[in-house]
Amino acid sequence: MPSEIKVVVGAGEYNKGEDWIHTQEEDLSLLNEENWRSRFFRTVFLPFCPSMFGSI
């Protein structure tokens, strides 16, 4: 598992590299918390602190 996740929000045609997740506003909005939860919650937060979240 990677130690960090690298995200480019609103990448357009910009390509930072294969280690980065490139997103568009319609995929991942900075202003929409649910976008972040649905995309990253289970892969980022849950593996590091499963007891904190119970049986999600």
Outline the fold blueprint.
Blueprint: E1 6-8, E2 20-22, H1 33-48, H2 50-53
Rg measurement, Å: 13 Å
- Give the end-to-end Cα distance, rounded to a whole number of Å: 20 Å
Major pleated sheet: 2 strands, parallel
Let me know the average pLDDT: 72
Q: How large is the count of helical segments?
A: 2
> Which H/E pattern describes the elements?
EEHH
How many DSSP-defined strands? 2
Helicity range of the residues?
25-40%
Stretches where pLDDT falls below 50 for ≥5 residues?
Answer: 46-53
Structural class: alpha+beta
Shape: flat
Strand order of the largest sheet: 1-2
Percent range for β-strand residues: 5-15%
Structural commentary:
The chain has helices at residues 33-48, 50-53; strands at 6-8, 20-22. A two-stranded parallel ribbon has the order 1-2. With 56 residues, the chain is an alpha+beta fold. It is flat and about 25 Å long.
